[in-house]
Amino acid sequence: MTLEEKAGLCSGADWWTTKGIERLGLAPIRVADGPHGLRKQKPGAAMAGSEPATCFPTAAGLAASWSRQLAREVGAALGVESRAQGVAVLLGPGINLKRSPLCGRNFEYYAEDPYLSGMLAAAFIEGVQSQGVGTSLKHFAVNNQEHLRMTIDAEVDERALRELYLTGFELAVKHGRPWTVMGAYNRVNGSYACENDYLLRDILRGEWGFEGAVMSDWGGTNDRVAGLRAGLDLQMPTGYGYTDREIVDAVKEGRLAESVLDESAARIVRLLQMGAASAVFDKDAHHRLARKAAARSMVLLKNEGDLLPLRKTGTVALIGEFAEKPRCQGAGSSLVNPTRLDTARAASASDAVSGLTVRYAKGYDSRSAEPDPKLIAEACELARGADAVVILAGLLETDEMEGADRTHLELPAAHNELIRQVAKANPRVVVALSNGAPVTMPWADAVPAILETYLGGQAAGSALWDVLLGEENPSGKLAETFPLTLEDCAATPFFPMGPDLVEYRESIYVGYRYYDKARRDVLYPFGHGLSYTKFEYAELRLSRRRMTDTEELTVSCKVKNAGSRAGRETVQLYVKDVQSTIFRPERELKGFEQLELAPGEEKSVTLMLDRRAFAYYNVELRDWQVESGEFEIQLGASSRDIRLSERVHVEAAQTYDERRNDRRDELAAYYDLSRLPSVDTKTFAALCGRPIEADFPPSKRRYHRNSTMIDIRRHWIGRILMNRMMKEVEKGMAGQEEKTVAMTKAFIRELPLRNLPMISNGMFTPRLVSGLIDLLNGRIVRSIGQFIKRT
């Protein structure tokens, strides 16, 4: 293989295809988006123009099932569909931690807990790859916001990095063994993720033993040669030949060892050789699986007076335009063109609902947040004559999407007002929510039943009736906390920050790790989810009461279905360090198991805990450390519903002076969480053990290749270029869905100049980018020279 051939393998041939080498019999492979459904782009089509595929519940919903088996089944189905459409690598799953409920892409991610995220991702990966199709575990790492995602520097302390933001990836890599890992756009502690030697070489390959290929997110490559040195094998999409030449020149000039290039080329060759033969998929069978997945992803948040399940006779008022125009998925690169779409209104006419008289009122315009008094009045009139009311509410399509973060947790005013008024007209109200992340519910006390359906995919309309009528007993559990207010979230004062940095000053206190430790009231806690039956926990047993951290602990209990319906219960195992000198959460999830029980049936569940279940990351030792002492083993139905607990004494085999951990004076806010919102950069820098560079005002910065389109609007040339690009977007996307246009505009606004070649199909060359930067910085003569040379 020639130097040029090896360099060529390290970038895509186009947006969705790798390069091959025909003379060596190496065929290119195709990759495609698809965390919850395959999005194989049609030639020349826009984002919404993909081949039909099954749209399953998004990751936020699938995570609420807490079912490894379901994740594996969905993954296997996606693997079959990928083979059927000639796709060799599915670009998913995405497992970035839900640091804040405001992240616009949270619907694509699993949970606020790394253990749950990692284990579900591993099962999903196993399912996809069981069909001979690869996965791309993404976005590695610390990619927890959309705001300035291509350039922001995520500053995070080492403990939070290891215990939260990397643990999910570690579990997925070790248990799922993905073919590829996708590097994130952002910087991590000063270095771009796609050229971060610490993340890619030291941790991913060195510590975790990952042997697959690392690819960039689309346009995530900053310095191609630095990326190769760090272990970034494949740049996507194409570099239009420019980056291939950079690699060749770097080798010839001695700036890049050819052995490094050889390693990357070899990994890509292995990837090219791993694809499976084509397949045919059963659309009806996959739709049935999507329906099952949607039903098992739904979380019954509230059910006062056992309003649910509904009686199968009488009259039901079905209210809300989502019944006709459902929100079944989020906007962005994961947008699926479903093979079919069940709406709740159409499903209400099915045989399964035949005993009910279902009448419909629109209630609101699904494209508007503004209340419509006429539509609300019509809905109230319909509700007055009904035996029960089902209101479909949630977030608008443009409220949560790739490329932009949310700014609040409220539902549209139209939905809140509709629920308030209808609840006055008829108190027997079920609110079914369609959203990809937590929302506030100012009307929660006014309605007896609330069902969180998340973004349930193409069969969500039918699945909703399955749950409402008791054909499916709800078994979902929240994989994220629903706070009472946005201000209750520990990350809120530090999200999304910018323009250069986002400081993760809350450290390890994310989600329930914060709410439970700080004793904060929440709307609904992590792990919460009701059933139409009742479960009793008994006989917690530990295999030992004293142990060393080199031994394993077996934890078991019995769970009984004490109700009259069959159901599924997820037993959650939490570990609490009772005597810690270092600051730690109140409890941490370290295991879970789902049981299916007939009425009156009792089963035993057994879970294993190893050393890591008790350990924290010791920054000084650069290793996981167990602090000798008492630990409480807790089994429960949520982080706030602990049913059984026992203590075990764990003795650390590795000695360490734990007094060195006690930094209460220096880091008081991390021990007294009432002070956490006021943590300043100085305190955070002390926690990180390094200086945190302050942001510089944009007015004092010079322009460079990572300046964004927003940055260059300060210059008149930048304003002209930005306006021209926005007009081209509007012209080129005329007639397309509002959410797709909005996402594209958000992408353009935060685009770094280095990515102009990518979005111009290579017409805007790297040399032209350099010329533009010189022009913006007032270097007129130099810019003219760059423009003349062009390539």
TrEMBL record:
Cell division found in the keyword field: no
Positions of the Fibronectin type III-like domain: 569-639
Listed GO biological process terms: carbohydrate metabolic process
Pfam families: Fn3-like (PF14310), Glyco_hydro_3 (PF00933), Glyco_hydro_3_C (PF01915)
UniProt keyword terms in alphabetical order: Hydrolase
Example GO molecular function: beta-glucosidase activity
Highest taxon in the source lineage: Bacteria
Recorded family membership: Belongs to the glycosyl hydrolase 3 family.
Protein name: Glycoside hydrolase family 3 C-terminal domain-containing protein
Source organism (scientific name): Cohnella lubricantis
